[in-house]
TrEMBL record, chain A:
It comes from Acetivibrio mesophilus. This is Nucleotidyltransferase. The lineage of its organism: Bacteria, Bacillati, Bacillota, Clostridia, Eubacteriales. It holds the Pfam family NTP_transf_5. InterPro entries: NTP_transf_5. It comes from the Bacteria.
TrEMBL record, chain B:
SUPFAM superfamilies: ACP-like (SSF47336). This is Acyl carrier protein. The keyword Disulfide bond does not apply. The keyword Phosphoprotein applies.
């Protein structure tokens, strides 16, 4: 069972190496050496698409002059994927300007989360971080106002029917259910004429953690208060401050990696989520106040969440999070790193090591059926706003 | 409709959606912890409130300040009804 990336197959080693933002000399040599070997490109393509790292791989291949070492048809697939995401992301960036101009006019402070900011300011090129929606953090007290501003901009709160290409407006009951039982409002959708973005999706999160059985509490109002302005596509937008942004990325990663709901949907372990954290830390290494982050985590008692994310980031990319930070966040019992399930319930243990879990979609077959049962029982019992 | 009759109808709605003995439900019983009304049932409570009182519950107002017990729900409904009357008037 592989414990480090050096023990992985060449295909999987390449997937992780090429998800890095900056390559050192050793990385470059390793990539060149791997590419000169006979490779299973169907695994590389599958992993690249599944882990959303294919475009970064193409970016590095191009910069390292490796395009002529690879089969032309493979390069064509990668190039097409890059072009599509360049167009998609640009459309989304234009829409960010449209939306934030309206938010600013209406005195609404919302923060851009995750991929939208990372693609604009952290990843090396517009197409290298893919995303499928706009993710904003809002104060739940502003929810009606935010939805109303989006409706004025042509959005409909509802569901998109992939087959008919129509937006089905949500009922009042559905909207209330999203508010009461999840961390986000019902999605706002707008159709476009762009064949690569038939519908623009806006996710309105009002909490950075999850709803229901979450034992931690991070106040959204507190995060928004500290949010910092940033120019994206000519609009004044906001993002969480340097430490809060990182905390949100880590919370998001932990939530989806360790909780049964996301594992069941195979949305749990994706290389890009770990790469996001690594690239963000590299980009803002001079600005991140690690002591502030540690104090915040101690105050909210969520050290375990951050340690989880940072531990695996360091395992994949080596020496990203400083050792003193890891020590400060380190929980006494680290058994949970190989566990999954439902918070506050007896966890289930993975039979596989981390790297096998991340690359083998068969992990879903190993999920204990009891965990799934508990998920539904507990989510129902514990969820609620009151 | 006066405060007393609003509260009485709210209690009726809560009793219909709770598994607790109706005799033990009071205006200060906490919706979730005392009455066992989870998020899904809470949505049914809100839908009934909209139907019975003809008010529109905004998504943003679904907070503990407004919906933690019958007393608070009653105050919320009164406020909503007053606002609606002002708008119409």
């Amino acid at each position: 069972m592989p414990q480090t990336i050096h023990e992985l197959s060449n295909e999987r080693k390449l997937t992780i190496l090429c998800s890095k933002g900056t390559l050192n000399e050793t990385d470059v040599e390793m990539i060149k050496s791997i590419v000169s070997n006979r490779l299973d490109w169907k695994d590389i393509l599958y992993q690249g698409i599944n882990h959303r790292t294919l475009n970064m791989m193409y970016y590095h291949f191009k910069n390292l002059g490796l395009l002529d070492k690879i089969e032309k048809e493979i390069i064509k697939v990668m190039k097409n994927e890059c072009k599509v995401y360049e167009l998609r992301n640009q459309t989304y960036f234009n829409e960010i300007k449209n939306i934030f101009d309206r938010f600013n006019e209406n005195g609404i402070k919302a923060a851009i989360l995750k991929g939208n900011f990372l693609a604009a300011k952290v990843y090396p090129s517009i197409e290298t971080r893919t995303f499928n929606d706009l993710d904003f953090l809002i104060d739940v007290k502003d929810s009606d106002k935010v939805v109303s501003v989006l409706e004025d901009a042509g959005y409909i709160q509802g569901e998109f029917n992939e087959y008919s290409g129509e937006i089905i407006p949500g009922t009042k009951k559905q909207k209330l259910l999203y508010r009461a039982a999840t961390h986000e409002l019902m999605e706002c959708l707008k159709k476009t004429d762009n064949p690569f973005v038939p519908v623009i999706r806006v996710d309105l999160n009002f909490e950075v953690l999850w709803k229901g059985n979450c034992p931690y509490k991070i106040e959204t109002a507190e995060l928004l208060e500290r949010a910092i302005p940033v120019d994206i596509g000519g609009a004044t937008t906001y993002i969480l401050d340097r430490e809060d942004f990182l905390i949100q990325l880590a919370c998001h990663l932990y939530k989806e990696a360790a909780l049964i709901n996301w594992i069941n949907e195979l949305r749990d372990l994706k290389v890009y989520k770990f790469a996001d954290i690594a690239l963000y830390i590299e980009k803002f290494s001079d600005e991140i106040n690690w002591n502030k982050l540690i104090d915040f985590c101690r105050d909210k008692k969520c050290e375990k969440i951050l340690y989880y994310a940072f531990h695996f980031v360091n395992l994949m990319y080596e020496d990203i999070v400083p050792e003193y930070v890891m020590k400060a966040l380190e929980p006494e019992d680290k058994g949970y790193l190989d566990e999954y399930g439902v918070e506050k319930e007896k966890p289930f243990k993975w039979n596989y090591d981390f790297f096998t879990r991340i690359f083998e979609s068969d992990r879903i077959l190993e999920v204990d059926q009891d965990a799934t049962k508990i998920r539904f029982k507990e989510a129902k019992k514990e969820s609620g706003i009151i | 409709m006066n405060e007393l009759s609003i509260k009485s109808k709210v209690l009726e709605i809560l009793k219909e959606n709770s598994e607790v003995d109706p005799g033990n439900i009071t205006e200060v019983s906490r919706i979730r912890t005392d009455l066992g009304i989870d998020s899904i049932k809470l949505v049914d409570v809100v839908m009934s409130i909209e139907d019975v009182f003809g008010v529109d519950v905004d998504i943003a107002s679904l907070t503990p300040e407004n919906f933690s017990n019958a007393q608070r729900i009653t105050q919320y409904i009164i406020k909503k009804m007053e606002n609606t009357a002002k708008e119409v008037g």
